[in-house]
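User: Sequence in, structure out. Go.
Assistant: Echoing your sequence, followed by the C-alpha cells.
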Amino acid sequence: MTETPTITIPADLLPQDGRFGSGPSRINPSFVRDLSNTGTAFLGTSHRQSNVKKVVASIQSGLMHMYGLPDGFEVVLGLGGATAFWDATVLGLIENRSAHFVCGEFSRKFATAAAAAPHLDEPVIVDADPGDAPAPVAVGGVDLAAFIHNETSTGVVAPFARLGDALVAVDGTSAAGAIAFDVEEVDAYYFSPQKALGSDGGLWIAFLSPAAIERIELISTTSRWIPEFLSLKTALDNSRSAQTYNTPALATLYLLDRQIEFVNHRGGIKWADAAVRATSDHLYSWANMRSFAEPFVTDEALRSPTVVTIDLDESVSARSVSAVLRANGIVDTESYRKLGRNQLRIATFPNVVISDVKSLTASIDFVVEAL
C-alpha cells in the first residue's frame, strides 16, 4: 500500500462540509438532528401504522409535486435499491425481450440481469464506450427499452426517448431529485434515494405510467413465478396503502421525506437542476483551466451535472490527491473502482453547495502543487 503524503491543507481553504461522494451522498445534518429529536415517536415504531404511513404518503405526494407527474402515474416503493428493481423488472415488466442502452457499469448490470433470465429472449444491447453514451435508436421486436439517465460510474448524462411501442424504463438513481426531464417520455423512472435525494440506501422508488401499471397487472396473471419480494404487483398494491411489502428502514424514509420537502420549498426540480448545473459548471471550468486536469467526458452535452469526472495528467496521481484530501477531511473524491482511470469523481448533488465546491478546487490546487 502506498503511503499517503503528509500534506496539511490550510484551514481557510477547506470546505465547510468535506463530503463529495456519489453515494452514499451528503445528507443534511439538520435533518439527522431533527430525526433524533423525534425520540420515541418515529424510530422503533410499526411501519404499518399511521405515523410511518403518513411519511410514505408525504414522499409520494412530494415527488408527484416535484415532477408534476401526469394523471394516472403512481409513485411506488420497494426494498433493495435499484439493483432489486432490475431483477423485479426482469420478472414483472419485461414480457419477452428488452433493449438496453449501455454506457457504464450500472446500465450494464441491468442488461446482464435480463440476459441471465431463462424466461426471456436474449436482449438487444446498444453499447457505448465509457465517457460516451449511445443514441436512442429504433430496435425492433422488443417490449421494453432500458436507459440510464445519469451513469454514476462515468459521469455521463445520457439521452433517452420513446422507441415505437416499447415501454421506456429509465434508471434515474443519480439524477432523481436533481435533473429535470420530460416525464411523458418514460413509463418506469426508478431510483434509489442515497444520491441526489440525500437519504440512505436500501429503498427503490419508481414513477410508473398507466402503461407500465397495465403491463405489471398483466404479467401478474400469467404462470410466471415471481417471488413476493421482487413482485412489482405486490409493491404496487402496498404502495397504494402508503407502505412497503416488508419492513423499510424508517430513518431512510424520514430523511428522504425531508429532502423532498427541502427541494420543493426552494422551487422543486427546476431549482435543483439549476443548482447542480452551477456547481458542476464550476468544476468543468476549473478543469479546463488547469494544465494537469481535463473533463473525462469530452462531449459537453453528455457531461453530467451531478457526477463530475476529471482526468488528471499522468504526472499527478489521482490516488495520492484523493488520499491527501481524505486525510484533511475531504472524502469520497476517488474514481469509480472498476473504471481504472487516473481520475477524480466528485458529486455535485443539490446538498453540495457551490462555496464548498470552490473550496474543494482550491484545496486540490494546493495539494497538486505540494505533491
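User: And one key feature?
Assistant: The longest helix spans residues 268-288.
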